[in-house]
Amino acid sequence: MQRGALSPVLMLSAAPEPPPRPPPALSPPGPGPRHGSARPGPAAEPSGGLGAALDSSLRTAVAFKAEGQRCYREKKFREAIGKYHRALLQLKAAQGARPGGLSAPAPGPAGSPGPARLSEEQRRLVESTEVECYDSLTACLLQSELVNYERVREYCLKVLEKQQGNFKATYRAGIAFYHLGDYPRALRYLQEARSREPTDTNVLRYIQLTQLKMNRCNLQREDSGPRDAID
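and the corresponding structure tokens:
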């Protein structure tokens, strides 16, 4: 070995180290579950389950309505009111089309099954049952010892939204407005009812009562006018 030459061991140690390899490229993080996030829910139920829930809710609503009618005939008005309310709850469940009476959730991603749609026949059944329930509720409320005329007015207007020509709802709306002190509206509904049933004695009597109330109110305003001017 020549002087000044490096030994093989020193030559290896003195050789430059190869450059470090770059770290492997990391793929972007996916939408995995975060810490504390809820676990994925159960798979979406098939549309057949929604249709079965809809049919079940409709059948239950019709059954409750029939029970309410039976209670009304037996003059069990409070029980009838409860039956009609339960029928209306079932109708809401049917329109939501979710099992167990739950309302339909917010729309999910594309391709997920939405709430079952009502057929034309089912839609007519829902509407007719709803109208009959509200119409019967007003009849029950008017039989109460202490009549809630605000509820009577509310339910009558719901019926008239669906059936503008409903005589009973028009007449009862006039009664409700009369007892709530809104005589101009009471007279309007009562006159509308008279146009459909010109010889109905109850309608004619309430029209007379309403006109008397309106005349008294006008006289009171006329009497109070000069006093206010003098004061």
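(Above: one complete record from the training split.) The chain has eight helices and no strands.
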